[in-house]
Design brief:
Layout: E1 6-13, E2 25-30, E3 34-41, E4 46-53, E5 60-62, E6 86-95, E7 100-112, E8 115-128, E9 139-142, H1 162-168, E10 177-181, E11 190-197
Parallel strand pairs: 4-9, 5-8
Antiparallel strand pairs: 1-3, 1-11, 2-11, 3-4, 3-7, 6-7, 7-8, 10-11
Length: about 210
């Protein structure tokens, strides 16, 4: 079976200026070093730049009406403008090493590199520590183990991550992701790698491949 891959470049940004938690090819940008990824949510799509986090499993974006309680995002979600938005009314809260976010869980289509993924669980935040949304990050894309989400809601439910949902919806045929980094030559924000959902891009591989399970 051929791999279904979605690759997205990411941007690197200086982590010292940000405070947060630790195949579809998606560009990544790194900021000592945090990594930002562009996605869109809803129908029609609303754009967001999210901080990629492998240490948590909850994805969240700020809601449009939260004002000064949502820090400094460049983009906020307007649920009423999306025909595919569905609130689950399940409360959400997460505390990072430095920072906090709360709100409620919802489902909507998340589009990554022109690939729509319907019915993705994420949180709509109406309060977060402003430091979480500095330097271009609107929210967080959590792709850690699903089980971590049970600590982010009062019912201790395990909420599937974007990666799990991509696999369940047959967008990718393996519930894995891989990350490729280029050498860092400057502290300025820059595209310096990509995350690949669904497998590994052979062009980036030298030697054996090791998969770390959830």
């Amino acid at each position: 079976m051929a791999q279904k891959l979605i690759s997205i470049p990411f941007k690197a940004v200086d982590r010292n200026k940000m405070k947060a938690a630790s195949l579809i090819d998606v560009p990544l940008a790194n900021v000592d070093l945090a990594y930002l990824i562009d996605v869109s949510i809803g129908t029609p799509p609303q754009p967001f730049t999210l901080l990629l986090d492998t240490g948590s499993s909850s994805t969240w974006v700020p809601v449009s009406h939260c004002g000064r309680y949502c820090g400094y995002p460049l983009h906020t979600l307007e649920p009423s403008l999306s025909s595919t938005f569905n609130s689950t009314h399940l409360p959400f809260s997460v505390r990072y090493g430095e920072g906090f976010s709360s709100g409620y869980y919802a489902q909507d289509t998340i589009t990554i590199n022109d690939t729509p993924v319907p019915g993705v669980n994420f949180a709509v935040s109406d309060y977060n520590d402003g430091e979480l949304t500095l330097n271009g990050a609107d929210g967080i894309l959590g792709i850690g183990p699903d089980r971590l989400s049970m600590y982010n809601n009062p019912e201790n439910k395990i909420i599937p991550t974007l990666v799990t949902t991509m696999h369940e919806k047959d967008v990718i045929n393996q519930k894995v992701f891989s990350v490729y980094f280029q050498p860092i030559t400057t502290k300025q924000p820059r595209i310096n790698g990509e995350i690949v959902f669904g497998g590994v891009e052979a062009k980036h591989v030298v030697g054996d491949i090791k998969i770390i399970g959830q």
